[in-house]
Amino acid sequence: MLFRQLWMFGLIFLIILSLIALWDVSYQTCGEQVPILLSRALTTDPYRGITLAFSLITFASSLYLNSILIFAGFFGFFSAFLVSMFQTDAHNALIVVSGIFVLYECYPNSNSRYAWRLHWWISFVFGVVCSGWILYSVYGCNPVDYDGQSPLPDSVRCARCSYWYITEYIFFWSMYGLVYWRIPPGLIWRDTVPIINIKPAGHSADKSASAEKSASAEKSALDPLYSNRALHF
User: Fold this and answer.
1) Is residue 91 within 8 Å of residue 85, measured between CB atoms?
2) Kindly report the CA angle at 112 between 107 and 113, in degrees rounded to 5?
3) What does the buried/exposed string (b/e) look like for 134-166 if buried means 16 or more CB atoms within 10 Å of the residue's CB?
4) CA 39: distance to chain centroid?
């Protein structure tokens, strides 16, 4: 299967999973169906296990893109869902750093299609708005400690239940979709990524140099943003 097609199927699955989790967990959190933090929905059982499995697949698949930052970004997303967001701030830190990695590495160049550039700027704008709202929900709403038993205090409702969280949904889904543009159109998804390359003894230096030159040329043809940068391997 073409990698781009598989990535689009993954994006559709992610959106459907998110909507189901949000519909269920929002009622548990707010007592009604109202937008809540996406991470809260996806790290609540039984959706956490599905999210972890999905993140593992995207993390492994990112090897195809020959980018250390994209690989690190999806490893960060996978790690973030391993960490409970209800016990530590590590989840938020991993999400922020991973998002920056993906946005940086998916930034279009001057020769990129207009749709790609528009897509990136939409993601960036919603990311900025989302970040502003998250900061306000912590420092502006100033939620009190809540045991989950008494009626939901106004400050906690302000922080947990808001239509501003829709900006987070659009940002997260859009950022995931940005990787689509980084996938070479003809790349086929199969397990043939050479993680360790062992050369038999007796190969000459000329053959080694020739092989590296050929690999570089092939990578340049496949990767739309490949420019032999140090951050790529």
Assistant:
1) yes
2) 115
3) beebeeebebeeeeeeeeeeeebbbbbbbeebe
4) 12
Tens digits of per-residue pLDDT, 66-119?
788 888 888 888 887 777 655 566 777 788 888 888 888 888 887 888 898 999
Both structure tokens of 222 = 């496949």
Residues 50 and 20: beta-carbon distance below 8 Å: no
What's the one-letter identity of residue 212? Answer: E
3-state class (DSSP) for residue 83: coil
Give the integer Cα–Cα distance in Å for 147 and 107. 43
Angstrom distances, CA of residue 155 to CA of 22, 168, 215: 21, 20, 57
Query: What is the residue-wise DSSP string for 162-193?
Result: -GGGHHHHHHHHHHHHHHHHHS-TT-B--S--
Residue pair 177/139 in contact by the 8 Å Cβ criterion = no
- The neighbour count for residue 189, using CB atoms within 10 Å, is 15
Question: Which residues have C-beta within 8 Å of that of residue 233, sequence separation ≥ 6?
Answer: 66, 68
Query: Using only C-alpha atoms, what is the Rg of the chain?
Result: 21
